[in-house]
């Protein structure tokens, strides 16, 4: 079996492509089950975030074309629409890649912690769907222990650097005094909570949180002296917002050009700063064309994020050393599995030879044969059968000048 990974991320693909290859939480289990049911795949898991979609599996060989075909069917895309943005990893390269992803080494924000939780969601979903086996399941366990060690032994996550942090930093560049501004946050997940926390710490004047489930919005808003509204109430409150940050799991845009244009008129063209952190996008791209609107996506925040990474560089070097060590550990485990299967096969073969010889000896005893003679014959037959195949293989090795096999045989049999 071969370990395979196939995916796209914020480096290889723009948000317009990533959002079309994203697997929303509500379909993730069905998707990974369908992937696992493909003929050549024995184990499967899917990681899907705003910045990456990755498929992990064990397959009969390293042919990625069947997986690409499945993606095309499942996401209803032509190969040409997404294949140029894909990358693939197999075996040892995959092991290193998944470790680095879980540790935040491949993230837009170096060392960000959210990816580990998203990786665990991918594992739990696949586990519940029954699509994990020994190899991929063990790989995930090694991945989690590696990420934990990196978090514990390095300072890679000590600095407050995230997409939410970058969004707030950008808002501070646009508005001189956040205490005079109103922020409208759409969603109630981890990213929005982090955004609210940063805004609150930076003295934002007022926070409004909108969510499809009002109770979730209220619970989150109460932590920051905010005001909660249902998603359906958005049209009544957009004009109040100087800052809008959106991060939901909606498959369709929540804010369209017409709605924002109407809000701008009500504000008498007072500017609105908007950040769309969702994939697929929550805000229609056409909104960017409106005067007095400053719209940014997750891709636009990269330059700001880069300026906040210096404190994590040294920690990243330490993390790479930990990752190197754990890659070696998992490789050793994989090799041990190959050896173990060989040992099992060899023992089963010897056991079968033993049973065949024993059955013949017992039958001879029941027929009245001399016990001493039967025992000698049993020992002779069993010895011949056990040594027959190795001797033939050694002669072939000699004929083919495979001195390495002969040397290995002497070491294995301690000759």
Major sheet: 6 strands, parallel
CATH architecture of the largest domain: 2-Layer Sandwich
Q: How many discrete domains?
A: 3
> What's the order of the H and E elements?
EHHEEHHEHHHHEHEHEHEHEEHHHH
Helix/strand class:
alpha/beta
| CA(first)-CA(last) distance | 34 Å
- Can you count the helices? 16
CATH class of the largest domain: Alpha Beta
CATH homolog superfamily of the largest domain: Glutamyl-tRNA reductase, N-terminal domain
- Roughly how much helix do the residues carry, as a percent range? 40-55%
Mean pLDDT across all amino acids? 90
Anisotropy-based shape: elongated
What does the radius of gyration come to? Answer: 30 Å
Spatial order of strands in the largest sheet: 7-6-5-8-9-10
Q: Quote the CATH topology of the largest domain.
A: Beta Polymerase, domain 2
How much strand? 5-15%
Uncertain runs are: none
Total beta strand runs = 10
Give your account of this protein's structure:
By secondary structure, this protein is α/β, with parallel strands linked by helices. Helices cover 55% and strands 14% of the residues. The protein has helices at residues 15-21, 25-36, 65-75, 79-82, 91-102, 114-129, 134-153, 163-174, 190-201, 214-222, 234-237, 257-266, 302-306, 313-366, 371-399, 403-412; strands at residues 2-9, 41-48, 52-59, 87-90, 182-186, 206-211, 227-230, 243-246, 272-276, 293-297. The strands form two sheets. Strands 7-6-5-8-9-10 form a six-stranded parallel beta sheet, covered by helices on one side. Helix 2 (25-36) crosses helix 6 (114-129) and helix 5 packs across helix 14 (313-366). The model has no long low-confidence stretch (mean pLDDT 90).
């Amino acid at each position: 079996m071969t370990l395979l990974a196939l995916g796209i991320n914020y480096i290889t693909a723009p948000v317009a492509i990533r959002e079309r290859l994203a697997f929303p939480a509500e379909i993730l289990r069905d998707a990974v089950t369908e992937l696992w049911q493909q003929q050549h795949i024995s184990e499967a898991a899917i990681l899907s975030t705003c910045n990456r979609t990755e498929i992990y599996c064990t397959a009969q060989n390293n042919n990625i074309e069947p997986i690409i075909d499945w993606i095309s069917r499942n996401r209803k895309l032509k190969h040409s629409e997404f294949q140029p943005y894909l990358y693939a990893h197999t075996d040892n390269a995959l092991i290193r890649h998944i470790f680095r992803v879980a540790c935040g080494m491949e993230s837009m924000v170096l060392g960000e912690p959210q990816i580990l939780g998203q990786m665990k969601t991918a594992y739990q979903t696949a586990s519940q769907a029954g699509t994990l086996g020994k190899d991929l399941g063990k790989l995930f366990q090694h991945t989690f222990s590696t990420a934990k060690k990196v978090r514990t032994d390095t300072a890679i996550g000590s600095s407050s650097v995230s997409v939410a942090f970058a969004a707030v930093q950008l808002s501070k560049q646009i508005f001189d005094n956040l205490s005079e501004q109103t922020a409208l946050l759409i969603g109630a997940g981890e990213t929005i909570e982090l955004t609210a926390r940063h805004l609150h710490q930076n003295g934002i004047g007022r926070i409004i949180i909108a969510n499809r489930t009002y109770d979730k919005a209220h619970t989150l808003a109460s932590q920051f002296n905010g005001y909660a509204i249902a998603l359906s109430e958005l049209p009544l409150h957009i004009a109040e917002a100087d800052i809008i940050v959106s991060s939901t799991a909606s498959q369709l845009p929540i804010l369209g050009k017409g709605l924002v244009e109407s809000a701008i008129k009500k504000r008498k063209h007072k500017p609105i700063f908007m950040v769309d952190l969702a994939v697929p996008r929550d805000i229609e791209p056409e909104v960017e064309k409106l005067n007095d609107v400053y719209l940014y996506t997750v891709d636009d925040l990269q330059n700001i994020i880069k300026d906040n990474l210096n404190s994590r560089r040294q920690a990243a070097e330490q993390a790479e050393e930990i990752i190197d060590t754990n890659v070696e550990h998992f490789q050793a485990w994989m090799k041990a599995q190959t050896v173990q299967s060989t040992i099992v096969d060899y023992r089963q073969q010897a056991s079968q030879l033993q049973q065949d010889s024993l059955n013949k000896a017992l039958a001879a005893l029941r027929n009245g044969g001399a016990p001493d003679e039967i025992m000698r014959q049993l020992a002779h037959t069993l010895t011949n059968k056990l040594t027959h195949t190795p001797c033939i293989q050694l002669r072939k090795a000699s004929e083919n000048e495979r001195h390495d096999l002969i040397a290995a045989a002497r070491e294995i049999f301690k000759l």
